[in-house]
């Protein structure tokens, strides 16, 4: 994942700062509304033929560059699509020995052992990361070992089960303050069990029944070890404990952050989760359900966004039971299930407030030129990313023309979209296209299927929601205006959507479940099948929002209420996550003072790191950092930046960077557009002075954005009905 935006040639820009007296503006009457997502139901979908009951499968390929999943997944899992952006992805790549952050612990598997780290945190003004130190390593030494590496025997939205044959199984459940291990069934005798530490054991204190041990380490840390049956250790040197006579049963390890927490950990030590599912049963809701064993109530930890969305009637919160995390304090929650509720974004084709009447002619003038340029400047790139941006940019012109009542311009745009999109769907595009590969189960590009660096790693499942989100946007718009074309290519459209938004758990599914979206973190990851020491990562939250928003629009085009609702739900959660972790507010307490003072947006957010740099730009290029969290500029951008106070701080933080030599005009456009939310007149002067635009943006789009800002800045989440009547 490197540079995704073309750098435009630098030309001198003449920025005129002129005070213009503001006046109240009339608004252009809105065009006839498209079927809204809520509160009225959309029209019933057309009956789909039985041949379309499963997603269309693009031409198949055997990609030579993809890793072999059989090395780490149990044979029973290989017949179904496998995750390519999961929270445990490092466990199944290369040697499988890079750590993963399974809150609140960093977990590393190596040499038939599991190492557990309660990480310390290192922060500067430029980055924050958590340091892995193998505080405790759990293994079952066997001679000779039956297998040199671990095996994933099952996985789900909130958990992964990792086996160390022949003796140990780990139930790694996200947010559990305990790391839980079980000896594998069928052993003829108790299994060897060893616990070692990079630190020295100062004391090992058992309770009278030998079902609880307290480990005091010379690092100053205290760990508690619970067992379902008596467990007796002998100490070998100062760094190793060996179970006398082996062991059979359950072992649970927990770090003790505060001595007062010990009674709480004791109380909940007998109930352990073995798996966890997330379900999207209602619009705007996600429900967690865990399968548990043992007895008593289930204790888990919630991150700050969980706590913000948690229905208080679904679970009990232990406000004074906390673990440290790079994502903010993790707080104890008791309950077998959680219900999270978010306010749905308003999935609309056009701006919320409509266009100011006195801006219509300027927009139409820009549209005339931008639409005419479609005929004289055909798309030159074969890159799936840049091609997607180009067709989505054109689709924006059709919707802006619709909103501005410039109907004369729409046919030209629709013809351009037909001729540009259709070859990708029918396989006639020269130089690239979509293919299906069955090893992991998903789409790859022709170029990416043989070159891991092509199409920004699309062939190794990097950035799928970014690329495909742009295609879905263009398809949704064309299907809205040309239903006949939409019906013809509906199978391909749904297949593209399902590649990153499939909810099915069925073995016969063509695609992995929620390829990019992480139901526990509540945002997407983009890293694909590439090993990273800090786990998965995502750079552009706005492009992730675009993917789910575009899927919701596709649902509106096809009268598919379920798709519209799921797309809107995922977009709403992605926005909430961006507000929580990517948008940096000084003094908020999420990040250290130095980092929050110097930054207003995170560059790349990793599972175990926060970075101010980008894949394609250093930290000081603030206009790139802001722009990559804004593009593409859409009606849903109103929701993403509805906090105008924060937006003002973000623009203020970014503007000085525009004086740097070499700043591309395209990046300036996004900064000026955001400035237009609260200072329209000054922003318009700057926008009119631009000599170029990002390849997914246009003068028409920037003028539409600024001229459709209302007196009530920011989006109205959930639509006007919820705003006025709830």
From TrEMBL:
Renumbered to this chain, the Basic residues biased-composition regions fall at 19-28
Q: Give the Pro residues compositional bias ranges.
A: 29-46
Signal sequence span per UniProt? none
Keywords recorded for this protein, A-Z? Carbohydrate metabolism, Cell wall biogenesis/degradation, Glycosidase, Hydrolase, Polysaccharide degradation
Give an example GO molecular function: endo-1,3(4)-beta-glucanase activity
- Domain Glycosyl hydrolase family 81 N-terminal positions: 79-348
Q: Which reaction does it catalyse?
A: Hydrolysis of (1->3)-beta-D-glucosidic linkages in (1->3)-beta-D-glucans
- Where is region (Disordered) located? 1-60
Record-listed E.C. numbers = 3.2.1.39
- The UniProt record lists the Glycosyl hydrolase family 81 C-terminal domain at 355-705
Give the top-level enzyme category.
Answer: hydrolase
**Pfam families referenced in this protein's UniProt entry, alphabetically:** Glyco_hydro81C, Glyco_hydro_81
Q: Which PROSITE patterns match?
A: GH81
Its BP terms in the Gene Ontology are: cell wall organization; polysaccharide catabolic process
Which Gene3D superfamilies does the entry mention? Golgi alpha-mannosidase II, domain 4
Q: Does the keyword Hydrolase feature in the UniProt annotation? A: yes
Top-level taxon of origin: Eukaryota
InterPro entries membership = Endo-beta-glucanase (IPR005200), GH81_C (IPR040720), GH81_N (IPR040451)
Presence of the UniProt keyword S-adenosyl-L-methionine in the record: no
Protein family according to the UniProt entry: Belongs to the glycosyl hydrolase 81 family.
* Identification of the protein by name: glucan endo-1,3-beta-D-glucosidase
**Could you read off the lineage of the organism from its UniProt record?**
Eukaryota, Viridiplantae, Streptophyta, Embryophyta, Tracheophyta
